[in-house]
Amino acid sequence: MVRALRPGRLQCGRYALSLERTLIMGVLNVTPDSFYDGGRYFDAQQAIEQAERLVTEGADILDIGGESSRPGSDPVSLEEELQRVGQLIETLAANLNVPISIDTYKAETAARCLELGATIVNDITGLRDAAMREVVARHDVPVVIMHMQGDPKTMQQAPIYNDVVAEVKEFLACRARDAVAAGVRQVIVDPGIGFGKTAAHNMELLRRLGEFSDLPYPVLVGVSRKSSIGQITGAAPEERLPGTLAATAIAVLNGANIVRVHDVKECKQAVLMAEAIRRA
Ligand code: HH2
User: Atom 9 in ligand 1: which residue has the minimum CA distance?
Assistant: First the structure.
């Protein structure tokens, strides 16, 4: 069976995470403008308290971001990004008992955060940059390779695919091959819900997520409170928890190994139910 090729665990520095069950990646954005938690954790003390809360609620990984990638957002400088996340990552890595992931596409940011204690890189640009591949290989940490059509500034203007699942899968397989050729040993793939896709594309990716299980890599899905939930339900980001729970449960039923969520406590229950049903 192709599934048997997948690794049974992720080695994130001193942490070994078993992939026998679905892992929960809690989101913490230290930005003024993220689409849901922007501005909430810009203050260092609030960020630390939220990180502790996410871990207490059951997060297996914390994903720290210092630049919003919401549709239409502008990039921030390396200095600004590091100023937002550097000290926080150092503090969390030293004081919490879960691996810290750095959500960045900048090789310099990733390198610095790995030195400060992060042990996973989450790259929304799919490891396109050779310098980023080199950083990940040198530190021998797991990396999330995510699919995006275009860039955050323009990606939602007119996304087009003939077969969204086949094209996203092909992109991820290619990027993963390049990463492995550069010496990266632990790849996680992510279809990139909401990144250069219409709501219909996102729904098709979630419905056909099982097709990604052909790839010999764990699959991560992030749908938490995203605008495609708003497009279907009419709900604002603050009101999208029920839609998030439904979509997250379906992602798990369809084979997601890791879910990236803002609401760890609530999603944990949805994940447990979906897993139990998948195994029944
Ligand atoms: N989604 C967001 C950011 N990073 N990384 C991965 N691997 N997969 C995702 O789906 C993903 C991601 C966007 O969500 P959020 O971080 O909450 O918002 P913002 O980009 O506005 O900070």
Answer: 222
**Amino acid type, 187:** V
Burial class for 8, CB neighbours closer than 10 Å (0-12, 13-18, 19+): exposed
Q: Which of 63, 68, 69, 225 to mutate to test the pocket of ligand 1 (most atoms within 8 A of CB)?
A: 69
**Contact criterion met (CB below 8 Å) for 223 and 248:** yes
Q: Which of 68, 81, 151 to mutate to test the pocket of ligand 1 (most atoms within 8 A of CB)?
A: 68
Q: What is the pLDDT of residues 43-91, one digit of tens each?
A: 999 999 999 999 999 999 999 999 999 888 889 999 999 999 999 999 9
Looking at the CA of residue 225, tell me the nearest atom of ligand 1: 17
For 25, phi then psi, to 5°, come to -100, 115
For residue range 92-128, list pLDDT tens digits in order.
999 999 999 999 999 999 999 999 999 999 999 999 9
CA-nearest residue, atom 3 of ligand 1: 69
* Phi/psi at 145 (5° precision): -100, 110
- The answer to whether the CB of 103 is under 6 A from ligand 1 is yes
The alpha helices in 127-222, defined as continuous H runs, are 130-139, 164-181, 199-207
Of ligand 1's atoms, which has the minimum distance to the CA of residue 146? 7
How far apart CA 172 and CA 254 sit, in angstroms, is: 18
Domains and CATH numbers, the chain: 22-275 (3.20.20.20)
